[in-house]
């Protein structure tokens, strides 16, 4: 059984920073890529940033380019999301996800961590 456990969410003022972490565990864990999604109340869940597990190449949504950075520690099966210059519109539940069974499909999910950015 694969588990993804997020940490690092919280309340921060606009312009501040947070660093999210997601540790993957499980005897059968393997992944092609990992990513961070977010979902605000009443809105769809969207991909914010992703990282190819072998190459380290990254993707960032336009809304976070220049502010958020995704990185990984392969040895620890951990992915990070460094969030700088946070805005109130970044307020959401942030979910860690992994492409466990096939490339291109996020099918392993964490429980989510709340990020609230106050103005």
Q: If you had to describe this structure to a student in words, what would you say it looks like?
A:
- There is one protein chain.
- This protein is mainly beta and 119 residues long.
- 0% of the residues lie in helices and 51% in strands.
- The chain is built from no helices and eleven strands.
- The strands form two sheets. Strands 2, 4, 5, 6, 9, 10 and 11 form a seven-stranded mixed sheet that branches.
- It is globular, with a radius of gyration of 13 Å.
Strand content: over 45%
Task: Tell me the series of helices and strands, N- to C-terminal.
Answer: EEEEEEEEEEE
Q: How would the global form be characterised?
A: globular
State the separation between the terminal residues, measured CA to CA.
40 Å
Per DSSP, the total helix count is 0
Summarize it.
The chain has strands at residues 3-7, 10-13, 18-25, 33-39, 46-52, 58-60, 68-73, 78-83, 92-98, 108-109, 113-118.
List the helices and strands and how they pair.
Layout: E1 3-7, E2 10-13, E3 18-25, E4 33-39, E5 46-52, E6 58-60, E7 68-73, E8 78-83, E9 92-98, E10 108-109, E11 113-118
Parallel strand pairs: 2-11
Antiparallel strand pairs: 1-3, 3-8, 4-5, 4-9, 5-6, 7-8, 9-10, 9-11
């Amino acid at each position: 059984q694969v588990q993804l456990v997020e940490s690092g969410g919280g309340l921060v003022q606009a312009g501040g920073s947070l660093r999210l972490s997601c540790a993957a565990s499980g005897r059968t864990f393997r992944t092609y890529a990992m990513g961070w999604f977010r979902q605000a109340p009443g809105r769809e869940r969207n991909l914010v940033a992703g990282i190819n597990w072998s190459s380290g190449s990254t993707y960032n949504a336009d809304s976070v380019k220049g502010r958020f950075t995704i990185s990984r520690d392969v040895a620890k099966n951990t992915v990070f999301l460094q969030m700088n210059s946070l805005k109130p519109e970044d307020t959401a539940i942030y979910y860690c996800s992994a492409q466990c069974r096939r490339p291109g499909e996020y099918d392993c999910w964490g429980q989510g961590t709340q990020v609230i950015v106050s103005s």
